[in-house]
UniProtKB/TrEMBL annotation:
Region (Disordered): 1-21
Protein name: MerR family transcriptional regulator
Domain of life of the organism encoding this protein: Bacteria
Domain HTH merR-type stretches: 38-95
InterPro entries associated with the record: DNA-bd_dom_put_sf, MerR-type_HTH_dom, MerR_fam
Keywords, sorted A to Z: DNA-binding
Keyword Aminoacyl-tRNA synthetase (UniProt): no
Gene3D superfamilies: 1.10.1660.10
CDD domains, sorted: HTH_MerR-like
PROSITE patterns noted in UniProt: HTH_MERR_2
């Protein structure tokens, strides 16, 4: 079992004063005092990623020690305040446990510029992540007819101003690559529909965070959405591979 040293990155006072192992529900209540957006699924995910290792009762129930709760608080704090990926957080916590000094990046500013898509009145929305149609055609190395065909099936969708998100380049290249195997845009509508359903699931999770009054919590929603999207893509790939292996 790994423990965060007292006074280190995990010293937050969220653990039980009694010092006894507690259930995951109790852990959730303790953490929500500082992290109102945390869920049992999030705690289980952090366990699956090796960030915390609670003991198990003979019947399989998780039991978290005060050190486990402090470690979870440290992880959530580093995500919220410093936007660190889990791999880096794990390295930091392990280094602390080895007695090493760890320097964290400066806390993320709570300013509204961390919240995308909420411009002040009269302020221009940043378009650095947008490209024009000619740029998309050049980057994806496709012609106008192909792009128009993909748009007609909703695989690539321009914004009202005619620009495209930068991800459109990746989508265009992948659609072109699949086309070389004989997969036409009409075949890929099922992939598009699955992606939209997965995006809907992610939105269900992060929507309460985006409505939160705390600017940092709202900004954290974007990091959570990216993390969930990555996991969703990994799950989708694993399921496809599993389904293919099950075919004769």
């Amino acid at each position: 079992m790994r423990h965060t040293p007292k006074g280190g990155a995990g010293d937050s006072g969220t653990a039980s004063s009694a010092g006894k192992p507690v259930s995951i529900g109790t852990v959730l209540n303790q953490l929500r005092e500082e992290f109102p957006e945390v869920t049992i699924s999030k705690i289980r995910f952090l366990e699956a990623e090796g960030l915390v290792e609670p003991k198990r009762t003979p019947s399989g129930y998780r039991k978290f020690t005060p050190a486990d709760v402090e470690r979870l608080a440290s992880v959530l704090r580093m995500q919220r305040d410093h936007y660190l990926p889990l791999k880096v957080i794990r390295e930091h916590l392990d280094a602390i446990e080895r007695g090493e000094q760890v320097t964290l990046p400066a806390p993320a500013a709570p300013a509204r510029d961390l919240i995308e898509g909420v411009p002040e009145a009269g302020e221009e929305v940043p378009t650095a992540a947008r490209i024009g149609r000619a740029e998309l055609l050049a980057a994806a190395e496709v012609d106008e007819a192909a792009l128009a065909d993909w748009e007609s099936y909703g695989l690539i969708v321009p914004h009202a101003d005619g620009g495209y998100d930068i991800e459109a380049v990746t989508v265009a290249k992948l659609v072109a690559d699949l086309g070389r195997f004989g997969l036409e845009p009409r075949h890929l509508r099922v992939v598009k529909a699955a992606a939209e359903r997965e995006a809907g699931l992610v939105e269900q999770v992060v929507a309460p965070l985006r409505r939160h009054r705390n600017p940092q919590t709202r900004a954290h929603a974007e990091a959570t959405a990216r993390e969930l999207a990555t996991l969703s893509v990994r799950l989708h790939a694993a399921l496809v591979q599993s389904a293919l292996r099950g075919r004769p």
